[in-house]
Amino acid sequence: MTVSIDPDLCYGSGECAHRVPSVFAFEDGYGVVRPVRESRGDEGLVREAAELCPSQAITVTE
Ligand code: SF4
């Protein structure tokens, strides 16, 4: 699974970082994907975070 956030779409709601802090972080007012992560078991939460991102800025590629 590859996860990315489009910085042009993210407006910094912070929801992804609150929902899955092991994968997402909130830096400088915007959501970012942590560069190194232990995401085993978080796949479902990551997909949910992408679906619920209010700006649809999160892309998940299997
Ligand atoms: S949930 Fe979406 S809009 Fe909010 S910080 Fe994360 S990527 Fe940005």
UniProtKB/TrEMBL annotation:
Gene3D superfamilies: 3.30.70.20
SUPFAM superfamilies the record matches: 4Fe-4S ferredoxins
Record keywords, A-Z: 3Fe-4S, Electron transport, Iron, Iron-sulfur, Metal-binding, Transport
Cofactor requirements of the protein: [3Fe-4S] cluster
GO molecular function, one term: 3 iron, 4 sulfur cluster binding
Domain of life, source organism: Bacteria
Function: Ferredoxins are iron-sulfur proteins that transfer electrons in a wide variety of metabolic reactions.
Annotated PANTHER family: FERREDOXIN
Name of protein: Ferredoxin
Species this protein is from: Streptomyces shenzhenensis
Taxonomic lineage of the native organism: Bacteria, Bacillati, Actinomycetota, Actinomycetes, Kitasatosporales
